[in-house]
């Protein structure tokens, strides 16, 4: 493995933080919508009797190393002024819930399968609430603690903003691939009506 140049590495790390910031905000949108729906519904309505999983993205930040006595020889290898991405640690067996190349959850059973089902609902809600412009994908982590998301956007938004993982073909296939879960139904989201009847092929990308 060859390490990229310092400037390129900093750009990539800044892109990861950008995705985490946007993902945190988009997840906050989901829970805000759920709270509002519960408030407007009757106590025995399904949105109030459904227990929505609690998930969140890791705390993170970019940190620059400043050595107290940096080497004067500029040709020497040093950590001085290097930038690192530091994230909250995730313990447990790491799970890829939903790939950024497909809207189909990769986990179907157990507690992690339930979280994947909820995250699929999150995608649907974000897609609708942003007028079909944005949703989170590449969900991964464990027990609802998530990291390294990808922000998927309409081609009208420059892909450069969110990196190479923003796969245009996957975004275009979202409505045909998404299958509403119990959480979509509990919230009252409409199913997509323009299904072709066949699934789009999964788009494999470099993670």
From TrEMBL:
GO terms for molecular function: ATP binding; protein serine/threonine kinase activity. The keyword Ribosomal protein does not apply. It holds the Pfam family Alpha_kinase. It comes from the Eukaryota. Residues 1-192 form the Alpha-type protein kinase domain. Keywords: ATP-binding, Kinase, Nucleotide-binding, Serine/threonine-protein kinase, Transferase. This is Kinase-like protein.
């Amino acid at each position: 493995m060859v390490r990229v140049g310092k400037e390129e590495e900093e750009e990539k790390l800044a892109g990861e933080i950008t995705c985490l910031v946007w993902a945190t905000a988009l997840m906050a949108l989901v829970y805000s919508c759920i709270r509002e729906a519960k408030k407007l519904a009757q106590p025995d309505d399904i949105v109030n009797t459904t227990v929505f999983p609690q998930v969140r993205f890791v705390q993170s930040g970019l940190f620059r190393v400043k050595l107290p006595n940096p080497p004067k020889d500029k040709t020497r290898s040093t950590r001085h002024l290097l930038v690192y991405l530091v994230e909250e640690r995730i313990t447990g067996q790491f799970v890829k819930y939903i790939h950024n190349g497909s809207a189909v959850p990769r986990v179907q059973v157990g507690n992690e399968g339930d979280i994947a089902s909820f995250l699929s609902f999150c995608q649907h809600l974000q897609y609708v609430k942003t007028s079909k412009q944005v949703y989170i994908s590449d969900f991964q982590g464990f027990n609802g603690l998530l990291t390294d998301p990808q922000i998927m956007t309409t081609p009208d938004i420059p892909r450069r903003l969110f990196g190479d993982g923003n796969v245009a073909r996957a975004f275009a296939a979202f409505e045909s691939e998404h299958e509403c879960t119990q959480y979509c139904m509990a919230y009252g989201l409409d199913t997509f009506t323009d299904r072709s009847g066949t699934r789009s092929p999964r788009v494999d990308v470099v993670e």
